[in-house]
Amino acid sequence: MDTLVEISRMQFAFTALVHFVFVPLTLGLSFLLVIMETVYVITGNEIYRSMTQFWGKLFGINFAMGVATGLTMEFQFGTNWAYYSHYVGDIFGVPLAIEGMMAFFLESTFVGLFFVGWKRLTKYQHLLVTFLVALGSNMSALWILIANGWMQNPVGAAFNAETMRMELTSFSDLLFNPVAQSKFVHTVSAGYVTGSVFVLAISAWYLLKGRHIEFAKRSFAIAAGFGLAGIASAIVLGDESGYTIGDVQKAKMAAIEAEWETQPAPASFTLIGLPDQDAMQTRYAIQVPYALGLIATRSIDKPVEGLKEIITHNEARIKDGIIAYGALQQMHKGQKDAATIGLLKAHEENLGYALLLRKYTPNVVDATDAQIHEAAMHSVPRVAPLFFTFRIMVATGFMLLLLFVLSAWAVYKNNFMDKPWLLKMAMWSLPLPWIAAELGWFVAEYGRQPWTISGILPTWLSTSSLTAGSVTASFIAFVLFYSALSIAEMYLMIKYARKGPALLNAH
Amino acid sequence: MFDYETLKLIWWALVGVLLIGFALTDGFDLGVGALLRIVGKNDDERRVIINCVGPTWDGNQVWLILGAGAVFAAWPVVYAVSFSVLYPAMLAALFALFFRPTGFEYRSKLTSLQWRGFWDWALTAGGALPAIVFGAAFGLMLTGIPFHFDAEMRVVMDGGILDTLSPFAILAGLVSLAMLMMHGAAFLNVKTRAAVQTQARQALRFTAIAFIVLFALAGYWVIYHLQGYHVATIGNMNAGLAPTDKHVVMAVGAWMQNFYDMPWMWIAPAMGFVGALAAIVLPALPVTAFLATGISVTGVVLTAGFALFPFMLPSSSMADHSLTVWDSSSSEHSLWLMVIAAVIFVPLILAYTTWVYRVLRGPVLVEDVRRDEYGMY
Questions:
Q1: What CA–CA distance (Å, rounded) separates B192 from B194?
Q2: What is the pLDDT along chain A (507 residues), one digit of tens a residue?
């Protein structure tokens, strides 16, 4: 069982991270295409049409992989996380279905017309098509992040003992989940940055080579402006603000900050150090006074709860949850009297915590204190991986901020052509947004452990009843398929980027 | 306005609409993929074929994605059981589906014949394999698959993965393949001219005959040999039910009961046969022939749905744990929300999809793909 859970997690992590190589570029590049084409429609300058078509070509190469790898994400909830799908499908399925109806249909129906519709549509119609592709892909992100936000902070749902699952009680709570909202803004902003760096870096390469100067200059300028707005939004509206809501989000933040003890407010921020999970302390820590309290609570008087305190609370919650679990077992044996139902209702909010025990004992109601303690100790994520990935993500973000401030300033001064160092910096920054985006997802998802649905369903219980062997085989197949397809994608991308806009004239 | 029981029925119908939408639109894309190397004799012809579906297949595929998403949202436990118990088949279909976005987009981006040859095979697999697997999945809905639930409502698979591969499922996979190739050939007959059109007509006749034979064989099997399922007793259908609290009996021919009780249902298999027969006689009227194969495809999906009702996924190892319309749905609240979403968005989707097809109307010619290297797939 442990092996099955671990391999299922690895497969999900791998396929999700590969999917998110392609998604942010789609999110950002689609809006850059809208901007370029809008300038074309307003000014009538043909070069902006060429820009839309050329960057659109690269958009298409990337988009195909986004579609292919996206299918996996939908399939996998059913294939590999069957108990998860049963337990929360009533809630989680709703935003996914609406995403299909409202967003993915829009994006996918119009994307073909974007490529072949140049001669069949008027300028305005084509611009509308491009806009609808961008709108569809960004709305798609909204609904997916509403679903993911619910996993982080599950609001508007209640347990139903008859059907043995969680059910939706409030759609508006699901929709306006503050965690989902901040995740959405942060994620699409990161997408805009990715699209901008992509255009900026390739344009800088053309300028350094002295090729397609007029074309590259304009592309560089648009990307610099859009990217500056994107990175400012990604940093200022970073989703750390969402970490003050919900208990598991708080544990995630405490782990990111290696906050073992609850400090008196305002807490100091550990800039860097070496977290030690077993000793529950951070060695060689360099701390900035007051900073964490300010960042996390936006105040100087609210304390930030530390991991030790969270674990103590969780231990009490597990014990309370056992009562609910016991009542549920009685009900399944046919004892459906008011007292038993009342007992379940009274302790229901901690039922998920009792489920944490399933990893340590098959018989939850008879769990020993040692088992309860062990489950509580593992009820928070491991600190070191989160501590470091979060810091690398933030550092990458600030490097990108510097890049876009310098680039936008040089565009404003109209002297970026005279700054080969800036162009080189832009070119070499190409991998940065992907590093930040992948680490960002790692922090969000690894930081939610040991839960798939925070406080409700442990990861350990969420899988399908498959053998570890069949998931290992599929995992290997995913690695092989994705590697081969990614190589083909990269090959085409590099080849077409090298050809440059000249390819538009080749017949 | 509607009670819970009616909502469950509405969602059964809506998922049916989505499945028919998928079979009608992405169905011909899959069929065209499977026919690519048969109807297209050289690179120019294959490019013509690819460009018939290139700009629209992506939108069509969303019927599948939305269909699966709707099953997830409206019938979570059906989604969980079918995808996990049929793990190897589902993943085979998934891997084959990877070849479509990449194949359509990447194939003609390089001129190397080896590169294009590889992607032609990939697109063939990307069309044929999912067609077979989705058909086989319908076959397995009729035979039932071996699973039951434990006290926590976890799915337990009874028997290995290969036990799910029954001869009837393979037959159903072939029915589906022949049907979608027929529908794909009818689409190519509309969208092409000259040599490609002639070859598409040949393929249309051949696949329509194959489909009629296979569909008849499957019908014979269901009537005279296959164990069907029948709900003997069930709790209050207007309440939230768990799929473990009912009694189900099995009997040969039980899948025919709905047709005997409600004879109007015979119209569904009749559509399946008549549509295909019409397509054999009428290839010279391409649009009519395409409508005929569309009628046939719709009839086949309805036939399966009518036979199964109210079952969605019967269990062959513990029939009482079978999943039905009445005891596998989401909560009333969730079903309501999505009815509202569907009422708003499905007409919108149909409207803009129609507009896109209108813009792209007219045949794809060999001269087009030769002339416009950049603007085509």
A1: 7
A2: 789 999 999 999 999 999 999 999 999 999 999 999 999 999 999 999 999 999 999 999 999 999 999 999 999 999 999 999 999 999 999 999 999 999 999 999 999 999 999 989 999 999 999 999 999 999 999 999 999 999 999 999 999 988 899 999 999 999 999 889 889 999 999 999 999 999 999 999 999 999 999 999 999 999 999 999 999 999 887 755 566 677 788 888 888 888 888 877 777 788 888 888 888 888 888 887 777 776 666 666 777 788 999 999 999 999 999 999 999 988 888 888 888 889 999 999 999 999 999 999 988 889 899 999 999 999 999 999 999 999 999 999 999 999 999 999 999 999 988 899 999 999 999 999 999 999 999 999 999 999 999 999 999 999 998 889 999 999 999 999 999 999 999 999 999 999 988 877 643
B293 in contact with chain A, both atoms CB, cutoff 8 A: no
For the entire predicted model, the pTM comes to: 0.94
The answer to whether the CB of A292 falls within 8 A of the CB of A266 is yes
In 3D space, the residue among A100, A101, A109 whose CA is nearest the CA of residue A133 turns out to be A109
Query: Taking a contact as any Cβ pair under 8 Å apart, which residues of chain B between 92 and 111 contact chain A?
Result: 94-95, 97-98, 100-102, 104-106, 109-110
Would you kindly state where each structural domain of chain A is located, as residue ranges?
179-244+383-446
Q: Does B355 touch chain A (CB under 8 A)?
A: no
Distance from CA of B341 to the nearest CA of A (A): 7
Chain A residues close to B345, C-beta within 8 Å: 98, 101-102, 105
> Mapped to the 3 state alphabet, what secondary structure does B352-377 carry?
HHHHHHHHCCCCCCHHHHHHCCCCCC
CA of A374, closest CA in chain B: separation in Å? 23
Which of these, A219, A150, A195, A202, lies nearest to A437 by C-alpha position? A195
Question: Domain ranges in chain B?
Answer: 4-371
